[in-house]
Amino acid sequence: MGQVPTATAYALLGLLTFDRDNAEPDDAGLTGYELKQRADNTLRFYWVSPATSQVYSELRRLETLGLVHADVRPGRRTTKRYRITAEGVATLREWLRTTDTDFPVLKHPVALRLMLGHLTGADQMRGLLEDYLDQLGRRRHELGAVRASLGDDERVRYPALVADWGLSYYRDEERTVRRLLGRLG
Amino acid sequence: MGQVPTATAYALLGLLTFDRDNAEPDDAGLTGYELKQRADNTLRFYWVSPATSQVYSELRRLETLGLVHADVRPGRRTTKRYRITAEGVATLREWLRTTDTDFPVLKHPVALRLMLGHLTGADQMRGLLEDYLDQLGRRRHELGAVRASLGDDERVRYPALVADWGLSYYRDEERTVRRLLGRLG
DNA sequence: TGTAGCATGTAAGCCGTTACATGATTGA
DNA sequence: TCAATCATGTAACGGCTTACATGCTACA
Prior knowledge:
The structure is a homodimer. By secondary structure, chain A is mainly alpha-helical.
C-alpha cells in the first residue's frame, strides 16, 4: 500500500537537493510552504503542481522512510524545515539509475476540443486556438522569468536546461498553432 | 458525487460522434472493446488511454445520463453496441461552447530526470535523452500511420488536424532534444 | 486443438484534489 | 487595525489503475 515513493514524491525530494548550501545552518532546509512555492516555479511546467496538502503529506511520508529529516523549530509558531538525508540522496540516485522512464503524458484539452470541430464549426475552433495562443504567450513569459532567475549558475545548470527545453516547446507550439489557424482560415 | 461527466467521459462521447454512418443498421454503434481500441489509436496521443474497465463503466454512466444508447444483442455472447443520442450530441456541443478550456498538463518524466542531472552526471543524461529520441521516433511513426489512415476524408478533417499537430510536436521535440544533446557535450 | 483476439465486467486501492480549519507574522 | 502572507494540517472523495475473473469466436 504505497511504501514506495511515487514519481511526484521523487520530484519533491529532488527539489530538496537544490537546498542553497548556506553558511548559516539556521536557514538550512525548506518548509513545506517554501517547497510548494518552488514546485509552482519549476515543477509545474513539465510535471505537476501538487496541492499544498499533498506537499505536507508527502514530506511526512518521506520522513518516515528516512529520506528527509525534519528540523522542528518550536516557538510561537512551530515550523519544520526539511532537508534531504544521505539515504535520501542515495535512494534518489538509485531511482534515476534503475527505474525505467515512462513516455511523457500530455493532457491537451485544446487538442481534445479541436478533434470535435465538426460539432461546432471552424469559427469557434479559431476562437479556441486564439485564446490558447494568448495563454501560451503568458506561460512562456512566466517560464522566461524563471529561466532568467537561474542565470548561468553552474549549480542549476540542469534546471536551466529543462527551462530552455520548456521555452523551446512553447515557441514551437505557438508556431504550430498559428499554422493550424491558417489552415482553418 | 460525479453526476457531471468528466473530460475523459466527454472525450469518449466525442469518439462516438465519428460512428461511420453505415447503410446497415446492424453495425451501428461501437462496443466498449472497439471504443477502447479507438481511444488507443487517437486519444492517447494528446489525452489519455483510459483503462478498459473505465471505458465500460463510463459507458454505463453515460447511458444512465441518457447521453448514449445501448443496443443489446443477445445470443451466445451478449454484446452491447453504443451510439450517441441526440441529447448526447446537444450536451457535448454545450460542453464545447461553455466550459472553459484548461491549459494542457504535461507529465514529462524525461525532463523531470534531466532536472536532477547534477546527481548522475552528463553521461547518464545523454543516455536518457538518446533513449527518449528512440521512443519519440517510434511514437511518431505510430501517429503517422494513424494520420495516413485518415487521408483527406472531409468527415475526419478535424481529427486529421489534431494528428498533424501531434506530428509537428514530435518533430519539434526531436529537434529540441538533439540540441540539448549537443549542449551536454 | 489450442491460442490469440473479442467482449464484458468486479473489487480494491492509491494518487491527488477540493474544501475546510487554524493561527502567527508582517507591513500598509 | 486590518489584510495579505506565512505555515500546517484534516477530512472526504473522485478518477483512474491494477488485478482478477469469465467465457466466446476465429483461425492456424
